[in-house]
Amino acid sequence: MEHLFFLSGIGVWILTASIIMDFFLGDREDLPHPVRLIGAAIAGAEKLARATLLPDMVAGAIMSVCLSGGTYLFSWIVFHQIEMHLPGVFFFLSATAIYFCISLRCLADEALKVTAALEKGEIEEARSCISMLVSRDTSSMTEEDISRAVIETVAENLVDGIMSPFFYAALGGPALCLCFKTISTMDSMIGYRNSTYLYFGRTAARLDDIANFIPARLAAVIIAAVAPLAGSRPSRVLGCVSTCAGLHQSPNSGYPEAAFAAAIGVKLGGPVSYHGKLHDYPVINKAGKAPCIHDIRKAVNLMYMSSFLFYAMILIPGMAISLG
Predict the structure, then answer these.
(1) Which of 27, 89, 124, 181 has the CA that lies 20 to 30 A from 76?
(2) Tens digit of pLDDT for each residue in 155-211?
(3) Alpha helices in the chain, H assignment, sequence order
(4) 263-286 as b/e: b if 16+ CB within 10 A
(5) 126-147 pLDDT, tens digit each
(6) What is the rounded CA–CA span in Å between residue 152 and residue 155?
(7) What is the total count of domains within the chain?
(8) Domain range spanning residue 168?
């Protein structure tokens, strides 16, 4: 147990510092961001992998495993050396690395930008804002379409943008957190089911599924726990998760989406257009109402409440041991 980062004494205070940084700073574009470096490394590695002329699935698998494993090994060595010789620097750099990997404040800000545009009646601005969050076609989105897209994005990113990176940071510190972020970024760059990445990106997509498996299911339970604060019942949330989570095409995204849908009282899913092609996905929580502007704010509030409960579940035991 002493090897778990959040129970290591200093680890819990590093995690706390990272949360505070995220809450007050958000995603600052004027700061050097390691995720941009990770993205550049993935793009460069893809060129090298494809140049080997190996079958796409083999080349993509080697690249995905080497990048994720290499990120962990390199980060662990660097942070370990800094910790031994410069503990103060280790604290600052570790908190900063974890801060860069979680995106609670950033996600809330982006969602509320869409809300502000809709409240002003500026549908084109709202479409422009939502296009920064989703890969679906946005040019003909209605207010209901935009609201649904924002809520689905907030629900999904509660897991892979907040809970998962913090979960792995709590277990293995900044090195494991950066490893997860590499896997997540690979999935967002090459984990597509199209002619270019169907085979090449398959391992990256599977690694992302595996990495988010536990946090996605934890998220559903945590959302149910805070559901009364959103005007719903835990039993309603868990019931919707049990019947609707499996309808989603992702093995993980259905859990937070179903939980959000039930907690807020809206229906999600349904027809979505990608690159000019309409996809008719199953509806999640059919008993819910069509989402509207006000439901976006409810989703953001639910995201904050769920995140803080999740943080508390990790930080309180760590602090108790550290102070005891």
Answers:
(1) 27
(2) 999 999 999 999 999 999 999 999 999 999 999 999 988 889 999 999 999 999 999
(3) 10-25, 34-51, 56-85, 87-101, 104-119, 123-131, 143-158, 164-190, 202-226, 234-244, 254-264, 293-323
(4) bbbbbbbbebeeeeeeeeeebbbe
(5) 999 998 888 888 888 999 999 9
(6) 5
(7) 1
(8) 5-323
